Amino acid sequence: MFKVFRLTAILEGISYLALFAVTMPLKYMADIPLPNKYVGYAHGILFIAYVILAIVFWFERKWSIKKGIVLLLASLLPFATFYVDQKYLQPAEA
């Protein structure tokens, strides 16, 4: 299950970056809205999955409040899920 959380964190970060760096410019600059719709749906599902899994692992592993807040805030900032993976998830898996 921990590998699923790590994979979700990485995919959520990738979808977030794809949404802002690729599909939103396509939508607003090239008037091609369809990719934004599908990447947006995927990102929404991955975001919800990430938040649920972060809360589950926060309580299951009895992590500190600081670590739990960092996990949750990471879902809101670009590149932050990659940081969480490097700083918290990879060492916890080892």
Quick description:
By secondary structure, the chain is an all-alpha fold.
* Low-pLDDT ranges: none
- % residues in beta strands: under 5%
Spell out the helices and strands N to C. HHHH
- Kindly report the average pLDDT value: 91
Helical stretch tally: 4
How many domains comprise the coordinates? 1
Separation of the first and last Cα atoms = 14 Å
| Helix-strand makeup class | mainly alpha
Largest sheet: none
Transmembrane segments: 7-26, 38-59, 68-84
Main location: membrane
Protein name: DUF3817 domain-containing protein
InterPro entries: DUF3817_TM (IPR023845)
What does this structure look like?
It is a multi-pass membrane protein. This protein is an all-alpha fold. The chain is 84% helix and 0% strand. The chain is elongated. The relative contact order is 0.17.
